[in-house]
Write a structure and sequence with these properties.
Layout: E1 4-12, E2 17-26, E3 29-34, E4 45-47, E5 52-55, E6 57-62, H1 84-98, E7 101-106, H2 113-122, E8 130-133, E9 137-139, E10 152-154, H3 158-170, E11 176-179, H4 199-211, E12 216-220, H5 223-232, E13 236-239, H6 245-254, E14 257-259, H7 264-270, H8 272-277, H9 280-302, H10 325-332, H11 338-344, H12 347-352, E15 370-373, E16 389-392, E17 395-399
Parallel strand pairs: 1-4, 1-5, 6-7, 7-8, 9-10, 11-12, 12-13, 13-14
Antiparallel strand pairs: 1-2, 2-3, 5-15, 15-16, 16-17
Length: 403
């Protein structure tokens, strides 16, 4: 356990500025920020003079149980041996942490292996980010359930939705995920521009979640699906690709967060081997709809929607551990400023998770989750992918700054 981090340029998410500060850590939380560190004789000090320190980044949309090097998403674990999925998820979680993500929200696991990994991380048996897990996601009867037999919980009608939501909570889920619309990484018989769950079905999931002090994340590309998610009281809309000004204004009014997953297409295209083997109907959807998606993220921002960072890590080529590429895509693709992208990955994401008192900024009393860089990512957003220091809860996971 670290007691002091000294010499760094500490980022204030509220001010959007750095100040040279020393961070005192006690029992995993930030105890003080000072200009004049006074460590005790037995204190462990990590000196990172000249480094730029941000709060631990938060990814609000991952699938750690999905293998990203498999181009065809149709039942990727079909021929796997027992234990393979859990081992993969544990390795993916560790890579995610090493990439600067100290907290992540898994919005669709695989037969609850990700919840077992979450529990192992919490028990300090393995390394990984703090995980908030949805268990299986809730979906209407669809051909895509055959793509993801360990991820989808099919339920039709409000009563079945209530039962399915309660089942996820009984397995230890921290939230509920619903499919308000079709998906892109899906069967050729499914259309991302069409709604799936009705307003009444989504409301049933929200009611169960609210009764249990949880929230609902809604996968929604289609315009009417986005609107239904906001009206039903979902905490977040995932993707939000085909919204319009009126619908984004509704999201802002309702306080519905947007988790835009801007990097899905650029991540796939950056991996030549995976991209060449992605099923043609999925590849075409990705490429055809990417520009509209990114333009609509900018539109949502202009209408006051709060944006939280999420990668969709787990889709083809969207590799666990390179999650910070989402901030680059938010800036270069959707037109956010580096300040806005970092805000989305820190205090906005913490607020979405209901963890603003514990995470999202380097303030006294919060968990000592710190990521460090040799250069300033606010000046060059590409730097955000070159993490040199990762500290989670005062525990040093990675340090390439001091050797």
């Amino acid at each position: 356990m670290i007691d002091w981090i000294t010499g760094g340029e500490v980022y204030d998410v509220a001010q959007g500025a750095y100040r040279r500060r020393d961070i005192e850590i006690r029992e995993g939380r930030i105890a003080a920020l000072t200009d004049d560190a006074k460590p005790g004789p037995d204190d462990r000090v990590v000196d990172v003079v000249g480094a730029y320190l941000l709060p631990g980044l938060i990814d609000c949309h991952v699938h750690i149980a999905l293998p990203t090097d498999v181009a065809d998403p149709a039942n990727p674990w079909r021929d796997s041996l027992p234990g393979a999925i859990a081992i993969h998820a544990a390795q993916a979680a560790r890579r995610t942490l090493m990439g600067g993500i100290t907290t992540a929200r898994d919005v669709g696991g695989w037969d609850y292996h990700e919840i077992a990994v979450r529990n192992a991380i919490n028990a300090a048996l393995i390394e990984g980010p703090r995980l908030f897990c949805a268990g299986r996601l809730l979906s209407i009867t669809t051909a895509t359930a055959q793509y993801y037999p360990g991820m989808y919980e099919t339920a039709d009608g409000p009563e079945q939705v209530r039962y399915a939501a309660r089942k996820q909570l009984a397995q230890g889920a921290d939230l509920i995920k619903v499919m308000a619309t079709g998906a892109m990484t899906s069967s050729q018989y499914e259309d991302a521009r069409a709604i799936q769950y009705t307003l009444e079905e989504i409301e049933a999931a929200v009611a169960v979640a609210s009764e249990n002090y949880k929230h609902v994340a809604a996968h929604a590309h289609a315009l009417d699906g986005i609107r239904n998610a906001a009206l039903a009281g979902c905490r977040s809309v995932e993707h939000g690709s085909f919204g319009d000004a009126e619908t984004y204004a509704l999201m802002a009014e309702k306080g519905t967060y947007l988790v835009p997953t801007c990097c899905v297409v650029s991540a796939m295209l950056a991996d030549d081997e995976v991209s060449a083997k992605v099923p043609p109907h999925i590849h075409k959807r990705y490429v055809d709809f990417d520009d509209a998606h990114l333009q609509n993220v900018a539109l949502a921002k202009r209408h006051g929607v709060t944006i939280a960072m999420g990668t969709d890590a787990g889709t083809p080529g969207n590799h666990h551990g390179d999650n910070a590429q989402e901030l680059v895509a938010m800036v270069k693709g959707a037109g956010l400023s580096p300040f806005e992208a970092v805000t989305a990955a820190t205090i906005n994401a913490a607020s979405l998770l209901g963890q603003e008192d514990n995470l999202g900024s380097l303030d006294v009393g919060k968990w000592a989750d710190v990521v460090g860089f040799a250069a300033d990512p606010l000046k060059d957003i590409n730097v955000i992918r070159n993490v040199h220091l990762v500290i989670k809860g005062g525990m040093e996971a990675r340090n390439d700054l001091t050797g």
